Amino acid sequence: MLKINASVGNKAKNYASDVRCVQNLINRQIHLLLPLMKLKEDGKCGPITIGLISEYQRRILKMQKPDGRIDPQQKTFNSLINFSKRDQPQTKPASHNTFDHLLFQMQGVLKASPIQKTNHESKIYSRLTEPDYNKAAIILGVDTATIKAIASIESMGDGFLGNGKPKILFEGHWFSKLTQGAYDKENPTISHKTWTKKNYLGNEKEYSRLNTAISLDRRAALKSTSWGKFQIMGFNHKYCGYQDIESLVKDMRKSEHYHLMAFVKLIKSMKWDAQLKAKDWKGFSKKYNGPGYQKNKYDVKLQQAYKAFSIGSK
Q1: How much is the pLDDT for 2?
Q2: 20 to 30 A from 125, CA-CA: which of 28, 33, 229, 259?
Q3: Do 274 and 138 fall within a single domain?
Q4: Could you give the CA distance from residue 262 to residue 253 in angstroms, rounded to a whole number?
Q5: What are the N-acetylmuramidase domain coordinates in residue numbering (predicted)?
Q6: Is residue 60 part of a domain?
Q7: Which residues contact 237 (CB under 8 A, 6 or more apart)?
Q8: Residue 95: what pLDDT?
Q9: Would residue 1 count as lying in a domain?
Q10: 17 part of a folded domain
């Protein structure tokens, strides 16, 4: 019988045997979260394991504030156990399917309320395929695990929210810089001189922050936002092949294919592929995530994600 003796995940005990149990349960559901990935069942609870726990809580359990933690006999663990007992078809999901598409097929299993398809469904379902990753990897001279690792750290590997909008993160310190601090005093959560994560709202709520900024200065607001699967900053639009920010945003709303194309052009334009080819995670992190990358251990997370995807691709 599968069971854990203590908590697993964020700020948890993370005993190796318990972590392996959770990793095994997640792997049974991973086709719903990241179809192209397999989690290494090594008993080590790193950012990938915690991230997938959070994603399961958000997408399957519909938690408003996922905590990335699993406790014995509590909601998340019980859900994983119950789901694992279901008889599931062994067919391999189509590589273009997103979680949202698969969820329609799994309604009976999840006992969820019927989900209505929307007019923007085609946008949500336009997910990257393995050939897409292969082509990008050839252009950059790296393996696909490198590209998948970056996407997993930046957006949990999914470029769109459930409502069909691209994932974003509004950066108030960049908005302040681009507007010369004009709105710092009256809008301190939208415009501030130094980086801080305390103003982030996450997911759909980031759009409320963006919309507030747009009402003050549209172009600066869009440039101060990171977009899509690879969370590309808007002010990098020219390096991504776009003459103006509006054109970038327009394509970011279309599909993950545009996210990947913009990412590849950005990496080539900035010549950051040299660090990726050398597996210089610190060097790449400093350039892609910024000089403060060490605060959130971006390079460590990226290296661990790369190892996970490398194993999953073998």
Answers
A1: 81
A2: 28
A3: yes
A4: 12
A5: 144-309
A6: yes
A7: 223, 243, 244, 245, 247, 248
A8: 37
A9: no
A10: yes
Is there a domain that residue 3 lies in? no
204 shares a domain with 134: yes
| pLDDT value for 51 | 81
Q: Which amino acid is at 217?
A: D
pLDDT at 4 over 60: yes
pLDDT of residue 156: 83
3-state secondary structure of 309: helix
Does residue 102 sit in the same domain as residue 145? Answer: no
Radius of gyration of the chain (CA): 20
CA 10 to CA 95: how far, in whole Å?
Answer: 30
User: Which conformational region is residue 297 in: left (phi greater than 0), alpha (psi within -120 to 50 degrees), or beta?
Assistant: left
Please indicate, yes or no, whether residues 108 and 191 belong to a single structural domain of this protein. Answer: no
Q: Which of 85, 116, 147 is the last residue of a domain?
A: 116
CB-based burial, 26-47: b 16+ in 10 Å, e otherwise? bbebbbbbbbbbbbbbebebbb
**Whole-angstrom distance, CA of residue 229 vs CA of residue 157:** 6
Residue 181 is encoded by which pair of tokens?
A: 């601090």
Same-domain check for residues 165 and 308: yes
Query: Using alpha carbons only, what angle is made at residue 223 by residues 138 and 148, rounded to the nearest 5 degrees?
Result: 30
Asked whether residue 50 falls in the same domain as residue 95, the answer is yes
DSSP H helices in the chain: 16-33, 47-59, 75-84, 99-105, 107-110, 121-125, 130-140, 144-155, 172-178, 206-216, 218-223, 245-252, 256-270, 273-277, 281-288, 298-312
**How many residues does the structure list for the chain?**
314
| Domain-ending residue, one of 116, 135, 151 | 116
Spatial contact of 307 and 47, defined as CB atoms under 8 Å apart: no
Alpha-carbon gap, residue 259 to 252, rounded angstroms: 6
DSSP-assigned states of every residue in 279-301: T-HHHHHHHHT-TTGGGGTHHHH
Domain coverage including residue 89: 8-116
- Asked if 48 and 22 touch (Cβ cutoff 8 Å), the reply is no
